[in-house]
Amino acid sequence: MRAELNTMNHRVADLVSKEEESERVILGLREEVFELRTQNENLVTEKEVLQKAVRALEQQLRKLKKKRSQHSGRRRK
User: Fold this and answer.
1) How distant, in Å, are the alpha carbons of 7, 14, 40, 66 from that of 23?
2) pLDDT of residue 76
3) What's the count of helices (H) and strands (E) in the chain, helices before strands?
4) Does the pLDDT at position 2 exceed 80?
Protein backbone atom coordinates (compact mmCIF):
# COMPACT_ATOMS: atom_id res chain seq x y z
CA MET A 1 0.00 0.00 0.00
CA ARG A 2 2.79 2.40 0.90
CA ALA A 3 4.65 1.52 -2.30
CA GLU A 4 1.53 2.28 -4.34
CA LEU A 5 1.19 5.62 -2.58
CA ASN A 6 4.84 6.47 -3.34
CA THR A 7 4.34 5.48 -6.98
CA MET A 8 1.24 7.66 -7.23
CA ASN A 9 3.05 10.58 -5.58
CA HIS A 10 5.90 10.23 -8.10
CA ARG A 11 3.42 10.14 -10.98
CA VAL A 12 1.65 13.24 -9.67
CA ALA A 13 4.99 15.00 -9.24
CA ASP A 14 5.96 14.02 -12.81
CA LEU A 15 2.66 15.31 -14.16
CA VAL A 16 3.01 18.58 -12.26
CA SER A 17 6.56 18.95 -13.58
CA LYS A 18 5.41 18.28 -17.15
CA GLU A 19 2.56 20.76 -16.75
CA GLU A 20 4.95 23.44 -15.46
CA GLU A 21 7.31 22.79 -18.37
CA SER A 22 4.38 23.00 -20.80
CA GLU A 23 3.35 26.32 -19.27
CA ARG A 24 6.91 27.66 -19.67
CA VAL A 25 6.95 26.56 -23.31
CA ILE A 26 3.54 28.15 -23.92
CA LEU A 27 4.67 31.39 -22.28
CA GLY A 28 7.81 31.41 -24.44
CA LEU A 29 5.74 30.83 -27.56
CA ARG A 30 3.33 33.61 -26.61
CA GLU A 31 6.26 36.00 -26.18
CA GLU A 32 7.65 34.93 -29.54
CA VAL A 33 4.24 35.45 -31.19
CA PHE A 34 4.02 38.93 -29.63
CA GLU A 35 7.50 39.80 -30.89
CA LEU A 36 6.69 38.50 -34.37
CA ARG A 37 3.44 40.48 -34.48
CA THR A 38 5.28 43.61 -33.42
CA GLN A 39 7.96 42.97 -36.04
CA ASN A 40 5.25 42.40 -38.66
CA GLU A 41 3.52 45.67 -37.75
CA ASN A 42 6.83 47.50 -38.05
CA LEU A 43 7.52 45.90 -41.42
CA VAL A 44 4.04 46.76 -42.70
CA THR A 45 4.55 50.38 -41.64
CA GLU A 46 7.99 50.46 -43.26
CA LYS A 47 6.54 48.95 -46.44
CA GLU A 48 3.87 51.66 -46.58
CA VAL A 49 6.49 54.38 -46.15
CA LEU A 50 8.65 52.86 -48.88
CA GLN A 51 5.68 52.50 -51.22
CA LYS A 52 4.85 56.19 -50.75
CA ALA A 53 8.46 57.09 -51.44
CA VAL A 54 8.46 54.97 -54.60
CA ARG A 55 5.24 56.60 -55.80
CA ALA A 56 6.72 60.05 -55.19
CA LEU A 57 9.89 59.12 -57.06
CA GLU A 58 7.89 57.68 -59.94
CA GLN A 59 5.89 60.90 -60.11
CA GLN A 60 9.10 62.95 -60.18
CA LEU A 61 10.46 60.70 -62.91
CA ARG A 62 7.31 61.17 -65.01
CA LYS A 63 7.60 64.95 -64.59
CA LEU A 64 11.26 64.88 -65.62
CA LYS A 65 10.48 62.74 -68.66
CA LYS A 66 7.67 65.11 -69.60
CA LYS A 67 9.97 68.13 -69.29
CA ARG A 68 12.66 66.34 -71.28
CA SER A 69 10.21 65.47 -74.05
CA GLN A 70 8.97 69.08 -74.13
CA HIS A 71 12.53 70.38 -74.38
CA SER A 72 13.51 67.92 -77.07
CA GLY A 73 10.33 68.79 -79.00
CA ARG A 74 11.29 72.48 -78.98
CA ARG A 75 14.73 71.72 -80.36
CA ARG A 76 13.32 69.74 -83.24
CA LYS A 77 11.07 72.57 -84.39
Assistant:
1) 24, 14, 25, 64
2) 54
3) 1, 0
4) yes
